[in-house]
Design goal:
The complex is a heterodimer of chains A (about 240) and B (about 210). Chain A is built from 9 helices and no strands. In chain A, helix 2 packs parallel to helix 5 and helix 7 (about 135-165) runs antiparallel to helix 9 (about 190-215). Chain A has helices at about 1-10, 20-50, 55-70, 70-80, 90-115, 120-130, 135-165, 175-185, 190-215. The two termini of chain A are about 25 Å apart. Chain A has a single domain, classed as MetI-like (MetI-like fold). Chain B is mainly alpha-helical. Chain B has helices at about 1-5, 10-40, 45-60, 60-75, 80-105, 110-115, 120-155, 165-170, 175-205, 205-214. In chain B, helix 7 packs antiparallel against helix 9 (about 175-205). Chain B is globular, with a radius of gyration of 20 Å. The chains are: A mainly alpha (about 240), B mainly alpha (about 210). The interface between A and B is large, with 46 and 52 residues.
Chain lengths: ~240, ~210
């Protein structure tokens, strides 16, 4: 424990491009980039599948299938195949971002899909009966009702991405994982454990921010939100 | 393919270690989660504390948790015990909520009928409530099993040998074959574990099959 505090308390570790604040910023930047990209694709797709009921089997299978693929193996395959074809700083970053994107998609897709698909049919019929068009039902009724599950999916994906971005340090990507991997290489347990502690705190803080946003965004009529059932949730790795 | 055939024994032994590291936490986690879930289900005050508290543990990324384990346990960084305990923590985190969901889904009429027949306390829990919660608990267990198989491989970064070592080896040598073999072996292992859990669930809940056949 003393090693860890000594490492964390050293002001030299809080400065420069390899310092703690810079690494936290990198980690958050990669994660945010990936999540925005994944959400931009997966949320509309999930909403569409939930709204129309088309392609349901595909979602369930893709989501379950992706869960079984070991992230570390996927990351390495992606880097070994793609990195030689790319140049400069992006040679390692791009394959890592592609893998993070692939891992973030299924939980977001599942959340958006399940959210819309589980809207009470009575509510949907009532909206129809009031003369709302398909798009109006989706935008005015289904999406607001689906928000709790959409958030669950986003939060699962976020945790998955933060965790995997940590592992991505082993393929020369920046972020907080650097402390873990570099500390391991240098047999510096203080650095490893200090970095690990910071990652745990960052993950908790990000999830906390999501919880707050969710509280504000979700209609009070829908509380208490049903959490994503365990067979729908995708655990972080 | 030739690489796989040349290294059958290696892959086999890594697969066994991998299965051990994934399954032991699954069983430990189940044993711990059932009483915690039972407690959370009947106690209104403990329920949010247990469900949210164990959920928070789930947010900690696995590599970080593996590295922090020695601080808590006093183990060495290479000790497989770190992996077993960390995965047990994840399994408990996932299953406590599942057990609560499963127990809450037991119909009140069934509970009342059991009480009326004089089945009380522990006997009611073990012969009526827990068996009826098995399908829900089993769905959570399947998620935990599959995610454990994936997470175990990450411990290879710390030098703990299992199928993930094929990933780190292959990556270090710029050689795809062992990585692909490792991924396939992990997939096979999760499919086998999944089938095992489904099989055991079927044996434990004969009424489900009977009902769907009727």
């Amino acid at each position: 424990m003393n090693l860890v505090w000594a490492w964390l308390a050293d002001p030299a570790h809080w400065q420069g491009t390899g310092g703690i604040p810079a690494r936290i910023a990198e980690h958050l930047l990669y994660s945010a980039l990936v999540l925005v990209l994944a959400a931009a694709v997966a949320v509309p797709l999930g909403l569409w599948i939930g709204h129309t009921g088309r392609g349901r089997v595909v979602v369930v299978n893709v989501v379950n299938g992706m869960r079984s693929v070991p992230t570390l193996g996927l990351l390495y395959v992606s880097v070994l195949v793609l990195a030689p074809r790319l140049r400069g700083d992006w040679a390692f970053l791009t394959p890592a971002i592609i893998v993070l994107f692939l891992l973030a998609m299924p939980p977001i897709l599942a959340g958006a899909y399940a959210g819309v698909a589980e809207v009470d049919p009575g509510v949907r019929d009532a909206a129809r009966g009031m003369g709302m068009s398909g798009l109006e039902v989706l935008w005015g009724v289904e999406i607001p009702c689906a928000l709790p599950l959409i958030f669950s999916g986003l939060r699962s994906a976020t945790l998955q991405v933060i965790a995997t971005a940590t592992v991505a340090a082993s393929v020369s990507v920046g972020g907080l994982g650097r402390f873990l991997i570099d500390g391991l290489a240098a047999r510096d347990y203080g650095q490893m454990a200090g970095g690990a502690l910071l990652i745990g705190l960052v993950a908790l803080a990000v999830d906390g921010v999501f919880a707050l946003v969710q509280r504000v965004a979700v209609s009070p009529g829908l509380r208490p939100a049903r959490p994503l059932k365990t067979h729908e949730a995708i655990p972080a790795s | 393919m030739t690489w796989f055939l040349d290294h059958l024994a290696l892959v086999g032994s890594l697969l066994l270690v991998h299965a051990w590291l994934a399954v032991v936490p699954l069983l430990l986690g189940l044993i711990i989660a059932i009483p915690l879930g039972w407690l959370a289900e009947r106690n209104r005050v403990l329920r949010p504390i247990l469900v949210v508290g164990t959920g928070l543990l789930y947010t900690i990324p696995s590599l970080a948790l593996f590295i922090l384990m020695p601080l808590v346990l006093g183990t060495g960084i290479l000790d497989p015990l770190n992996v077993i305990i960390a995965l047990t923590v994840y399994t408990v985190a996932l299953l406590v909520r599942t057990v609560v969901d499963g127990l809450s889904a037991v119909p009140e009429t069934v509970r009342q009928a059991a009480i009326a027949m004089g089945i009380g306390g522990a006997r009611r829990f073990f012969t009526v409530e827990l068996p009826l919660a098995v399908p829900v608990i089993s769905s959570g267990l399947r998620v935990a099993a599959v995610s454990n198989v994936s997470i175990v491989s990450i411990a290879a970064l710390l030098g703990i040998a299992q199928l993930g070592s094929l990933f780190t080896d292959g990556f270090a040598r710029d050689f795809l074959d062992p990585i692909v073999v490792g991924i396939v072996a992990c997939l096979v292992l999760s499919v086998v574990l999944d089938a095992l859990i489904i099989g055991v669930t079927r044996v434990l809940t004969p009424w489900v099959a009977a009902r769907s056949a009727a």
